[in-house]
Write a structure and sequence with these properties.
Distance between the termini: 59 Å
Protein name: Proteasome accessory factor C
Helix content: 25-40%
Keywords: Proteasome
InterPro entries: CBASS_pafABC_assoc_protein, PafC-like, PafC_HTH, WCX_dom, WYL_dom
Structural class: alpha+beta
Largest sheet: 5 strands, antiparallel
Number of strands: 12
GO cellular component, one term: proteasome complex
Shape: extended
CATH topology of the largest domain: Arc Repressor Mutant, subunit A
Amino acid sequence: MTRPAARNGSRASADRLARLLNLVPYLLARPGIEIAEAAGDLGVTERQLREDLELLWVCGLPGYGPGDLIDMAFDGDRVTITYDAGIDRPLRLTPDEALALVVALRMLAETPGVANREAVERALAKIEDAGDLVGAPVAVRLPGDTPRVEALRAAVEGGKALGITYYTAARDETTERVIDPLRMLMVGGRAYVEAWCRRAEAVRLFRADRIDAITELDEPATVPPQAVPHDLTEGVFRPSADLPLITVRIGRGERWITEYYPCERVEADGDQWLVSLRVTDLGWARRFVLGLGPEVTVVAPVELAEQVRATAAAALDAYAVPAPTTVPAPTTVPRSPEVDAERVPPGDPAVAGRTQ
């Protein structure tokens, strides 16, 4: 079994939705237009336009009966909208619809990485004014909203350089860095700051929850001309041919790996799967494999297999150290009835505090 490359279906769906929303008013203004001409104006092929028209035939108002759906007439290669299902009428929102839109816009405004936050806030103000929703008792807070994220966002908006203490999971190390922030991002439910790292002399992504300390410096952020933001349309980690390729054999209980990590190849091998994926470095791969269950075996590279074997052997050797055989005899102290009456359960915080 070979795992197919993932397709960006959400982007294609969004593009088609925008095209369909523009298609009806376009056709209403040009009754009897030739399909070839319309396809050229809209920047699509004739085949794609015909598929869009077939989809419009099943779109319309709730009820979705014959009198509710968009209708059109064809005369050879010409098309005319005969019923637009009210799409040409001004938009009127119910209070519930307006409130739902306000909540969505407020969430969008709080999301790090929004390209034009001011435009979102202007649209929000217009909807609130039109629907008498100013000051609506609705508070929106994203799961990633923390004082750390707020400090990072303020630094980005204020154009300040930052000193940070950062934990790098791939190398299992903590470093001190000075960064010049470029933008805030929200990817996969996690907040990131993208910045020019003066230590690495390159653009880097820093996960907000791995920043242990932040110091705003008394100097503006200085981003060199060669600092180019990353393309994150397909996620934060983008495997490339120059990264190490590892292959592991996994059992049924570890198949979640193929859903969580981008894999180059997944092949069935009886009840087990052979999985190949790119990693940032073999140090991360070693910790990754050691953290999995017993149904995982490293197939390649040999270097990784040896590292995993050596680390596992060292752990077993640590357990093999014999414990001290001589235990000091306990001191017996006469116990009074009052003390027995005040005994507390083992591990009680108060007792632990007195005995340390």
